[in-house]
Design brief:
The chain is mainly alpha-helical and about 160 residues long. The protein has helices at about 15-35, 40-55, 60-70, 95-110, 115-150. The chain contains 5 helices and no strands. The longest helix has about 40 residues, at about 115-150.
Length: about 160
């Protein structure tokens, strides 16, 4: 991708990550409203959704870690620090892991198959259109320090 010389040095993700998750989730829930199909047996869905929603909140400490490092979690703003503390010691993408768990938790709370069917598409968009671009950007910004971090910490979990 060729950018104008005055373009900001940012990852140029395809869309804001919350939107990548929210649009298919809401579309799937709307479709479920008109054509309900259960994702799981009701009893199993009732047991699984609360822990998934709770796991979704792993994103909050990630945002706090960004704030403490003095940088922005939004990928449309320049990154000023490499955050490798807090949940970033476990996964390089704790906010996206959190969004995925939250997406699954909401899907099972409603027990809707449609958003579950859309999740693989969401994950492909996240991997190719967001994470891959962020990784190239972070390697450009932080070089060997970022590559060493990547060798220690997994992309997801």
């Amino acid at each position: 991708m060729t950018l104008p010389n005055d373009a900001p040095d940012i990852p140029h993700v395809v869309a804001p990550p919350p939107l990548v998750y929210a649009v298919p989730l809401l579309a799937g829930l709307l479709l479920h409203h008109f054509r309900p199909l259960a994702a799981l047996p009701p009893g199993l869905a009732r047991v699984l959704w609360p822990p998934l929603v709770l796991l979704g909140f792993i994103g909050l400490p990630a945002v706090i870690a960004f704030r403490r490092a003095g940088t922005h979690p939004q990928p449309w703003r320049p990154t000023t620090a490499l955050v490798i503390t807090g949940p970033y010691r476990i996964t390089r993408n704790p906010m996206y892991v959190g969004f995925t768990f939250l997406y699954l938790g909401i899907t099972l709370w409603v027990n809707a198959l449609w958003p579950l069917l859309a999740l693989p598409i969401v994950l492909v968009i996240m991997r190719r259109g967001v994470i891959a671009r962020e990784e190239v950007y972070l390697e450009r910004c932080f070089g060997d320090v970022y590559r060493a971090y990547c060798s220690r910490v997994r992309r997801w979990i």
